[in-house]
TrEMBL record:
The chain crosses the membrane at residues 69-87, 107-129, 204-225. This is Uncharacterized protein. Keywords: Membrane, Transmembrane, Transmembrane helix.
């Protein structure tokens, strides 16, 4: 796989850094897998590595997709298990007499959970009904075009494409000038209404998760919901 990356330096640097240990080789495969799918932010600094990843032989791409499928199945199972555990805990808690502080804390936790769920649903709706319009405003962006080709139109693919658009709106000028300079002018002209459409659900999701964690931790430490 690594022999197909000739022009870019990211794969070669990673090979020298992590070495040939079993864990190191797993990290090397993980990096190449990210380059053919959903990638980390720092890899955008080497756009040529994505161009070379796009022309990898199809049989190698199929092998690289297997760990991603397994990880998504595992994460989905973990989320469903956490939801089931949360509902069971909520049912058991609500069936017992509660003090006013405990009732307030439980109500806040439920509110945070509902807000996070609504934010995720809003992002899914935006990815299906507004994504094409949003991407059309960034026609000169290599990464937007690349994501459309590589990630496709599945629910996961469209959600990842929307997440990348949201991230691009938060990047500073210096970073953009190195990874996607042709998109800078288009991002500067991005309509404020559509910018808010992307950022508000993101902030709702982030604040809800942080709030849930803070109130749950404080409630346990203070013995309110223990």
């Amino acid at each position: 796989m690594e022999n197909h990356f000739i022009v870019s330096h990211l794969v070669g640097i990673n090979r020298k850094t992590v070495g040939n240990t079993p864990r190191g080789r797993m990290k090397r495969v993980k990096l190449i897998g990210e380059l053919t799918g959903h990638y980390a932010l720092f890899t955008m600094l080497d756009p040529y590595v994505f161009m070379e990843a796009e022309i990898l032989p199809e049989h190698l791409k199929k092998w690289l997709k297997v760990p991603g499928y397994i990880m998504r199945i595992a994460l989905t199972g973990a989320v469903l298990l956490l939801l089931w555990y949360g509902f069971e805990w909520l049912r058991a808690t609500a069936s017992k007499p509660m003090t006013d502080p405990k009732m307030l804390c439980v109500a806040i936790l439920i509110t945070c959970f509902i807000l996070a769920l609504l934010a995720c649903l809003a992002r899914v709706c935006i990815s299906f009904f507004k994504l094409d319009e949003l991407e059309s405003l960034l026609e000169n962006s290599y990464f937007v075009d690349r994501n459309r080709r590589v990630m496709g139109n599945s629910l996961y693919g469209r959600y990842c494409r929307l997440s990348h658009l949201s991230t691009m709106l938060l990047l500073d000028v210096d970073f953009l000038s190195k990874c996607d300079p042709f998109a800078m002018d288009e991002l500067a002209r991005f309509p404020l209404s559509l910018r808010r459409l992307l950022t508000i659900p993101n902030r709702m999701l982030a604040y809800s998760i942080v709030g849930f964690g803070v109130f749950l931790l404080c409630g346990n430490l203070l013995g309110i919901i223990a």
